[in-house]
Write a structure and sequence with these properties.
Layout: H1 2-20, H2 25-55
């Protein structure tokens, strides 16, 4: 949920910066939609997946067979 709040805040900031720079209103709306609704939550979601993946590492691989250890 916090990722969405941060995403909306970042999108609003992007829209305000575009408007202050003299951009058109539709460009500011597109900046808000892309940054706030698409990019920031997506990045946060993948960062969350990466954090969860690091907490549960894969078990070590089993050796194949004692005879195959000298290959």
């Amino acid at each position: 949920m916090g990722v969405l709040v941060i995403g909306f805040a970042m999108g609003l900031l992007a829209a305000v910066l575009v408007a202050l720079a003299g951009g058109a209103i539709w460009v500011a709306v597109l900046a808000y939609v892309f940054v706030g609704v698409i990019a920031a939550p997506l990045v946060g979601f993948f960062a969350l997946l990466a954090m969860l993946g690091q907490r549960h590492p894969a078990p070590p691989a089993k050796p194949l067979h004692p005879c195959a250890s000298n290959l």
